[in-house]
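Reviewer 2 asked us to include a model.

Predict the structure of this chain.
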Amino acid sequence: MAEDFFSKIGKKISETAQQAADKSSVFVEVQKLNMQIAGENKAIKESCTAVGELVLAQYKEGVEFGPDVKAMLDTILAHERTVEALKANISDLKGERFCPNCGKEQTEDAIFCGHCGTKLPEIVKAEEAPAEEAPAPTVFDIPVEDGEAPVPEIHPEVLDAIEEAKATLEAEKAETSEEA
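Predicted model (C-alpha cells):
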C-alpha cells in the first residue's frame, strides 16, 4: 500500500514536471514568434519611411499627387524649411558658415566652397546690414474685437482630422463612463 502511495506521488510529480516543461516550451516559442513579429513590424515601418522619402523626392521634382498626399508633403516641406532656418540661426549664433550646396563648413573669408566649388553668399556684417523692414503682421498682431481672436486659415483636411479625433475621443469617453 505504501508502495502504491509513493508510486502515485511519483507519477503525479512526473506529470506536473512534464506539464511545466510543455508550458515553458510554449512560452519560449511564443516569445520567439513575438520577436519575429516585432522584426517584421520594424521592416514595415522602414519600408513605409522609404516609400515616404521616395514620394517626397518625386514631389520635389514636380510629380503631382492627390490633394490629401499633397497636403502632407507640403507640411513636410514646411517643417524642412523651419529646420533649415533654425540651423541657420544656430550657425549665426555660433559664428559658423556653411556651403548652401554641400553643407560643409567654410571659413569666414571664403568666396567659393572648398569642397564643391559653389559660390558662397556674401556675409553681411551687422553694422553693414540695411535697416530691417517691420515684419509682416501675423494673426497675433491683429487686435481682438468682441473677445473673438482671429484664427489662421487651416487646411480643410486638417480640420476634418481634428473633428474625427474629437469624435473618437468622445466615443471612447462615453464607453469608459458606461463601463464604470
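The chain has a mean pLDDT of 79. The CA atoms of residues 167 and 173 lie 10 Å apart. We have added this to the supplementary material.
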